[in-house]
Amino acid sequence: MPGFLTRWLRHGPPRATEDREFEPGKLPRHVAIIMDGNGRWARKRGLPRVAGHRAGVESLRDIVRACVDWGIAILTVYAFSTENWKRPQEEVEALMNLLVEYLRRELPELKKEGVQVRAIGRLEALPLPAQQELARARRETAGNNRLILNLALNYGGRAELVDACRHIAREVLAGKLRPEDIDETVLKGALYTGDLPDPDLLIRPSGEMRLSNFLLWQLAYTELWVTDVYWPDFRRENLRQALLAYQQRERRFGGLKI
Ligand code: IPE
Ligand code: IPE
Ligand code: MG
Hints:
Layout: H1 3-11, E1 30-34, H2 38-44, H3 49-70, E2 74-81, H4 89-113, E3 115-120, H5 128-141, E4 147-155, H6 157-173, H7 184-189, E5 201-204, E6 223-226, H8 236-248
Parallel strand pairs: 1-2, 1-5, 2-4, 3-4, 5-6
Helix pairs in contact: 2-3, 3-4, 4-5
The structure holds 3-methylbut-3-enyl trihydrogen diphosphate (2 copies) and magnesium ion.
One 3-methylbut-3-enyl trihydrogen diphosphate binds next to β2.
């Protein structure tokens, strides 16, 4: 049975008619987003930074739903970096509380939508309530397969590579692996995203032209798309623009146009 028919039978017709605009088969499988610009969004309105983070949660809800509607398989969002601990304690605490609140409030909806929640990063350093809510969300959505929502929390691309090296070194010490067997497949498999394909498209709102330590290995051949829109203003319409731009790109992976 064709894939779209299975989908239709299982989930019903697509909610949005707009998806006809996309070229079939040319949507990215994996979209990554650096959710940036919350502070500037708040400052522009004379509000505390935390208000920007709170508004950013609404963008995440909207974008998750759009990804489900449009058949994106994986959405990885950068929510807290290993460097974000440098911020005032009050802001860090507010971000952690928002994470807990988001997971508690959204879990029923995420389950209903068929979203599988995952997380990447040094999760053991997160406050206990955040770890507990994450564990619950992961457990209760493990069987879902419509969209993988991958939350990058206390995530750093360099920390991830260090952790991968440690993992591989332990395997070598245990005699399970010889140094000459270490290749790109082994290294990729040792990353937090080991079983996921690399992102096809990276979106950075708020106009910054940098990676800020996000998915350093995985973004090697990812298409980049930057917008000046701050994350709390980013909605499915902005995602649509990014997806349409992606469809115009020619991905060569170092080869020649065919
Ligand atoms: C992104 O928004 C959220 C996190 C980093 C957690 P920012 O807080 O970085 O917003 P700006 O960049 O200061 O505008
Ligand atoms: C990247 O944004 C991290 C997240 C969005 C979670 P930052 O605001 O921390 O990045 P820099 O400091 O501007 O590079
Ligand atoms: Mg920022």
